[in-house]
Specification:
By secondary structure, the chain is α+β, with helices and mostly antiparallel strands. It has three helices and two strands.
Length: about 90
């Protein structure tokens, strides 16, 4: 059995690459909850300016991700866009 944990580490990153979840949603044509899910599942990097243990329990710390990683995502599959050729 394995316990999966996240660890926070201080990094240097290009500020132009750091974007909000809302911007990531706009760029990728996804909804913000989908971006959050991709971050939670380790598909997108998760950045924040506050150290996790420095935030108050009731404080909502804003999360950010990488513009390059979002732009590298495969196009979102459109649901309900099945071809209707031949149907009358």
């Amino acid at each position: 059995m394995f316990e999966i944990t996240r660890t926070a580490k201080k990094i240097q990153t290009n500020e132009d690459d750091v974007i909000s979840m809302a911007e990531a949603a706009r760029i990728s044509q996804r909804r913000i909850p989908e971006i959050a899910d991709l971050m939670n599942r380790f598909r997108l990097p998760w950045y924040q300016f506050r150290q996790p243990d420095a935030a108050l329990e009731s404080e909502d710390v804003q999360r950010f991700t990488s513009r390059k990683a979002v732009e590298a995502l495969p196009p979102k599959k459109m649901r309900g866009m099945a071809s209707k050729k031949g149907k009358k």
